[in-house]
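Reproducibility note. Readers wishing to regenerate the assembly model reported in the main text can use the exact inputs given here. Chain order matters: entities are listed in the order in which they were concatenated for prediction.
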Amino acid sequence: MIDILQIFLSESFWAASLRIASPLIFGVLGTLLCERAGVLNLGIEGIFVVGAMTGWMAVWLGAPLPVGVLAAALAGALFGLFHSVLTVPLGLSQHVSGLGITLFASSLASFAYRTALPQVSSPPRIEPFRSLDVPILSDLPFFGTVLFQQTALTWLALIMVGVVWWIMDRTPLGVALKAVGDNPEAVNAQGLSVIRLRMGAVVAGSSLMALGGAFLTMSAFDAFFFGMVNGRGWICIALVIFASWQPGKALVGALLFGMFDALQVRLQTEAGALVPHQVFLMMPFILSIIALVIVARRADYPRALLTPWFRGQR
Amino acid sequence: MSGSILAMRGMTKRFGPLLAADSIDLDLYRGEVLALLGENGAGKTTLMNMLFGEYTPDAGEVRIRFPGGDEEILPPGQPQAAISARIGMVHQHFTLAENLTVLDNILLGTEPLFSPKRSRRRARAGLHRLMETSGLNAPLDVRIRNLSVGERQRVEVLKALYREARILVLDEPTAVLTPQEADSLFAAIRDLLGDGLSVIFISHKLREVLAFSDRIMVLRHGRMIGEMPTSEADAGGIVRMMVGEEQARVDRTVGKPGAPALGLAEISVPASRGHRGLFDVSLTIHEGEILGVAGVAGNGQSTLAQITSGLLQPGQGTISIGGRDVRRLSPARALREGIGRIPEDRHQDGIVADMSVAENLVIERLDSPEIQRQGILRRSAIAAHARTLIDAHDIRGPGPQARTALLSGGNIQKLILARVLEAQPGIILANQPTRGLDVRAASEVSRRLIEARDRGAGVLLISEDLDEILTLSDRILVMHNGRIAETKSRDRAVIGAMMTGGAAA
Amino acid sequence: MIEIVPRGTMRPRIAILIPVIAGLAALLLAAVPLAFAGAPILPAYAQMASGVFGSMFTVTETLTRATPLIFTGLAAAIAFRARLWNIGGEGQLYLGALAAVWVGTGMIDGPPILMIPLVLAAGAAAGAVGLLGPALLKTRFGADEVVTSLLLNFIILIFVQMMLEGAFKDPMGLGWPQSEPILDSAVLPTLVDRMRLHAGFLIAIAVALVAHAVLAYTVWGFRIRAVGGNAAAARHAGIGVKRTILGVAIMSGACAGLAGVSEVAGLKGYLTSDLSPGFGYAGIVVAMLAGLSPIGVIAASLFVASVFVGADSMSRAMGVSSFLADLIVSMSLICMLVGGFFARFRLRRRTTRAP
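Running the prediction on these inputs yields the following structure tokens for the assembly.
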């Protein structure tokens, strides 16, 4: 029989949980920034694809890894700018614009990839981020493996949790962002620009989302595949509700999700003979829906989410 | 009075075909309270929104004179510029972020956005001093969503004062306050006038204007109609100026109460994020009477209305209609039982703006054989029905097939009234039926309600406008904090005291 | 500074013009990626056009490709009318296909007059169930249907793969994960000799007409429009909002399910896990281009299908990535969105005259 306890005690299980959680951390933080400012960003799935493709492509073309990360973030920011122009000053449907961005971004990324590499049978590989292997710390029992043998991108994700928390909770900018997602009129009456705050949040949030995508091709794997994002973006949209739009809870949510996914992979290898492996593949999606249903009733949505704001119309 | 500190010249704003403000001139002097009077839609708020940079004027300029004698023309359409010129505005609809604390709301926009941290000790100390000198108090670390309406109003004023406003615009500040709360707000502001504050005070409550202001300007249809010192003003003359002609105000007539039509017995509802709680609310509406419910907004009137229209199930208590207990009143059931409902927010609950006028006129009776046959809409019958009601109720607009969004507020209310009265309801729930309507439209609504009462309907009239309650009601209830009490008195002071929780008289 | 000014009422002619302009704009914009791919621009457009209108075969291929798009477009249009954000058309399509295969590959057999309606009904029911889930989670628990219906797409696709490797696997399939073929009696007849165009196209047109009639002429359609226009006012007026939403979910899901049936029973003959190249998502584009009008869905499907067929043919001929088709379709959605904005508003430079 499967010894679940043994799984939970193993270092590799926890290391895998954190690894799986990393792209989601970026994605949930990005979603959090957008939604706190009052803008739903269903472009996330496509922005993940763009981030994955751009980061990988930059490195494949010879750029160093950090430049690849920057390129991914920049590409995400561009699509975020696009979404924010459509939804903030023009006030168009955030649902439709977001879906449009997802369709546009993922087909553009795939088109660009295919145009650059018309005839390849197996996707070309890059040298991805390696685990940090911090001297001494990496040799610590347990934590050495779980924390200090991760890649720089996982660490960046963890740092971003702190950065976003600091901004939202400790700076005037965070106060303004929270206000603009609750009642834009409050921000406008105090002489701040609703449009700029919202657009800025969407652009910044989208570049974080793109980093989530970049993690896939530059840390988790070493190549770009079609369909590799596989719903991770949508899962972030569910996770941010579960996290009640708080950075700390976003980290917890992503980690819980990573744990379940890691557990699922291990159970799959142990119980693969008993249950079709697809049952395990479904688990992340089913878990996301269950998590959403549990918190839905008491979810404290930003009050102005989905509501466009126009100057001088009250 | 020393020299003018604000001069607005030729202020003009057009919304589509509507000329909301038509070259208005306005001067404000140091240390005075200037009242802007006028009906809804007269242009008061439009004028102030141009001053504050919320609207860009189509023509006109705003000149600010500083104590040293310098002059500045405010760049149009920039709230930031108005704030820098130390103009503060307390909006009719609160501009507060409910998920933030009082302190966060007051400091919003006063700190550099990109500073790495908030240093608030100084701000906090300054605010405490300000609260002491102004007499306006608010709990700094409580989130707005946990504050009462009166407290929120004080935060709005504090926000402006914290930015050292020299010119304070108050847009209908007392709409949500009890008479006593309003008095203390005025007293606090009066104290500040000596320190050089000037106030522009927008209201349509004549009594307040006469008591509080130094000078009165009257607007009508976007134009400045007249101006006078308050000491020389007389109420009748001002009303004539506001309305344009002598209006036949609705006179109070007495109803002939019959059998009980609708009864609520010991209704209790726990409070939630969506609504205030109710505690042991009992009331009976008889046929042929208007039962008025007075009270400051947010004391449970909306919850009471939701229960009577079937939108909310009470936690405890019973509802009876014509003497029979009704379990689980739903909106559809309420309609079948003959309860006609005029909702508080006519845009949100009253109409589907994208559907036609004709469709909105039949939306409450889709099961009727006049409207449909075997589930198929009878479109010509619906159109004919619409034409009849449009004529009978003088609903003005582009016609029965036009989108309802194109109607004015007054005509939307007529549409709702037409729909409700057509069903000859035995009970009518009228929740703020004249809010936001001009005098003419309001008196038309009042007249229709009296007609319905005289026909034998029992009317539950919920209103924040005490004058309306006093004019129309046969009996008066007062709501405070989710509780309800009847009063025999028709004295404003007595009812006002009950609205703040004083004992019944 | 620039100000947004609402226009007066929109004339119907403009409402029809916007999607046309949006589609053309997207086609023109396609020149940019074409240039990047190094393809000669004008010949590429000529190839696209001949790929659609070149022959009887290409025309019927376009109609064949439009068939599932009409169904999924209707699914999105009907749901969006009631403000139910059904993004799960892709999953519902697969559920419909799965049900068609379950019923149509030997569970029972009979004459076509019996089998075809049976297969259609099974697929429609399965699709309906696929959206009823998210709709119930919305009405019972307040869970956002955008997320649940989206995530369900992934769950259903994995489930289909599981069934194709398990219970539904064709033993004669040489190990490929595909279902047994649909019985001949359940196959939708073709409409033109030696072409792939099948009766599913006519069924799709019929369903669109019915949907139009329901929305415009029935009490049920009135309720749907009222709930979509203003749910609070509809509830206040005694309309059962939750019941209406659940009903809409059944209609919408059924349409998407029929897309799956028509692809399996009309075109492919058996089910594989790559049955749909994203018809569910393309249906959203179709619905938006159609302005959520069921009749408009037919026209918009023809446009999107032409883009797919034309761009595919051009891609093959010129060696351009076939993702170009998806690119054009997604751009037409965005152009439509922007076009809708400029139909309702205009931009004006803010100027203030001196008095």
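We highlight two features of this model. The mean pLDDT of chain B is 89. The interface with chain A takes residues 49, 52, 54-56, 77, 79-80, 82-84, 89, 91, 93, 95-100, 104-105, 107-118, 159 of chain B (CB under 8 Å).
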